[in-house]
Design brief:
Layout: H1 11-22, H2 30-43, H3 48-51, E1 52-54, H4 58-67, E2 71-74, H5 77-82, H6 85-91, E3 94-97, H7 102-110, H8 115-127, E4 132-136, H9 140-151, E5 159-162, H10 170-179, E6 184-187, H11 194-205
Parallel strand pairs: 2-3, 2-4, 4-5, 5-6
Antiparallel strand pairs: 1-6
């Protein structure tokens, strides 16, 4: 097998070329295709073409929120770390993860529930009047909590990225989000994870921010 001689600066570009040559993105919009390509680039898993579900206007809603100084709320520190800080800063957006905050940990013990649930409640209390994008890559309980808050009309998120991975209530929680009348990007089934959530967030950001020039593309 011949080893490709690729300039380090061109590895991502070459990877995307390979993905384009092997994947069938028929039926997806250009914006959706960019998200799928970044997920595949991160996971090397082409099954996401079949697994990712976009609600109507999901990408548009996410991009509009990012243009309006959105807050991204995550359920893991990995997602918090992975989202592009230069892009967030350029767009005037923020990202927060409250799962390790002392008050969240204390409330989870007090109410015998998960830190993810308490973190969602804290985010809603702090950012109720902001455009919020929820990026969930680990905790199905976070999605279940969001579903309940949507039903009670306590929140109206700009977008829910629901891609937790695992076995317990993972599929059920995703189905709940897909039943809500809220823009969503969801990975059907058990697949997902924090890296997938990061890929989706960055794919949205990079449609509004040029990494080479640092320019905002509005």
């Amino acid at each position: 097998m011949k080893i490709e001689n690729v300039n380090p600066a061109d590895i991502e570009k070459r990877s995307m070329e390979i993905i384009e040559s092997e994947a069938d993105f028929t039926g997806f919009s250009d914006s959706e295709r960019l998200i799928l390509k970044r997920i595949i680039h991160t996971t090397a898993d082409f099954d996401y073409i079949k697994n990712i579900r976009f609600s109507e206007n999901a990408v548009e809603s996410g991009l509009n929120a990012l243009k309006s100084n959105a807050v991204i709320v995550t359920d893991t520190k990995m997602i918090l770390s992975g989202i592009s800080k230069p892009a967030l800063k350029a767009l005037g957006c923020e990202v927060h993860c409250f799962v390790s905050d002392p008050d969240v940990v204390a409330d989870a013990k007090k109410y015998n529930t998960t830190r993810a649930i308490q973190a969602i409640h804290k985010a809603v209390d702090e950012f109720r009047d902001r455009n919020i994008i929820f990026a969930v890559g680990n905790a199905p309980t976070a999605l279940i909590c969001l579903h309940e808050l949507i039903l009670s009309e306590e929140i109206n998120p700009a977008l829910i990225i629901g891609v937790p991975v695992g076995f317990v209530n993972v599929v059920q929680s995703k189905n709940l989000i897909m039943s809500d009348k809220i823009p969503y990007i969801v990975s059907e089934g058990r697949k997902g994870g924090s890296t997938v959530a990061v890929s989706i967030c960055n794919a949205l950001l990079y449609q509004l921010y040029d990494r080479k020039t640092g320019e905002v593309l509005l």
